[in-house]
Request: fold
Amino acid sequence: MTLYLFLTLAVVSVITALLMVFSKSPVRSVLYLILTFFAIAGQYILLNAQFLAVVHIIVYAGAIMVLFLFVLMMLNLNSDTEPQKSTVWKLTAGIASGLLLVTLVGALRGSIQISTPAEANGRVGLVENLGRVLFTDFVVPFEIAGILFLAAMVGAVLVGKRDLQV
Amino acid sequence: MLILLFDTALILEKSILVIVLFLITLGVAAYSTYGERKVAAFIQDRLGPNRAGPFGLLQPLADGVKFFTKEDFMPNAAERWLYILAPGAFMFVACMTSAVIPWGTQLTIFPRPVDLQVADINIGILYVMGFTSLGVYGIMIGGWSSNNKYSLYGAIRASSQMISYELAMGLSIIAVVMLTGTLSLKEIAAQQTGFNWNIWYQPLGFLLFFICSLAECNRAPFDMAECETELVGGYHTEYSSMKLGFYLFAEYINMFISCTIIATLYFGGYNFPGVDPGWLGGFMGPIVLFAKIFFFIFVFMWIRWTIPRFRYDQLMHLGWKSLIPLAILNMLLTGAGVLLFEN
Reply:
């Protein structure tokens, strides 16, 4: 059952990701990306990481993608305004990124030990454990990420008030 | 075999609960339209709908028939599939949220106790937030795909408004979570036994949450997305027939769900002092909860017909410069309180 769910979600996420890349209209690309995020959230749930799944939906699908759509709609970008590259360019870009993929897969394959979710504790992805781990083992990276976000927010406000004399 | 039997019973039980909930949601939403007109009429010293059936009680039915039989118009330059998909997506998202709400404790009239909650997931309140944040897609896609500048304006207004108010909403929910120590709606409701409601500890949080719910539901005084004096009809200008009906209907479903969340988070859910939610075979809990929900739906309507609409910049100022700082203050105060009194 889990295997079938995994395969379904995997196929859906790959197909929607491809559709996102190949779609001519930017708004459709964003909508396909949202579907990809849903499929990935499903994978998180299969790994028993409900919190991560929901936060993934809230942050990516619920906020960031809305902003993407917002900008696309404000600027009224559609397939006519989308710049079209020549076939040579597309081919070059495809080969270059394909090579990067091969290199990455080759590099990661040997170096990371992937443990199956069955081995892990069933409650490992739940909020209690996640919070405890974040505030004990990973407290420094967590706080640094927090400061990074704060800096980004201040920067965004500053950019928004560009006309102000700084 | 026994396990299989048990599972079948569970699936059957949950399916029935889902169907009943769906019907109740649709029924409440339908009669909210009637209630809204009656409340509006009362506030404006009119009679309201009184032709269809006794006291106009069949009015929602007549409206439904009208929606179905109207001509289904589609603009020539619309994005065909997205235009059709958008109202459905909006409706779907609106209906999904009720799955995690604890409607009562347990029904005991059956041989096995039946939990009055479809799914007790341990991140219930985040699930609600997730679906609230997805609600904006139906509006955005609908407004954009209509290929009409008024629709687009409405969609853009709605999306920026919903994103802005989600922040304050999330921050006020965090205060409740800090207080109760759980994200599960079932436990949050169960902790507020008798008169020990969260509202007594979170008055500011409730106020913020309530204002944000009004904004998230696109209700007056925050219904900028369909401000008819400026935008014709807002994001659903180009919609007609049942597609328009879906949009209007889903708004009432959203209102119903918001009121349910308010009642569950702050007003004890199915608890009431002196009333055991297990009475009447477990039906007392839902009755109490629905009484609270109907009261809040009335308050929503009362506000709509009393307070004039904000201007858009006022709306943004209120959201970003008043509600978010207040919500952060509330969070800090709650944290201090939890630290002082509970440890």
User: Anything to note?
Assistant: The two ends of chain B are 49 Å apart (CA to CA). Chain B touches chain A at residues 79, 82, 121-123, 126-127, 129-130, 132-134, 136-137, 140-141, 143-144, 152, 155-156, 159-160, 162-163, 166, 183 (CB under 8 Å).
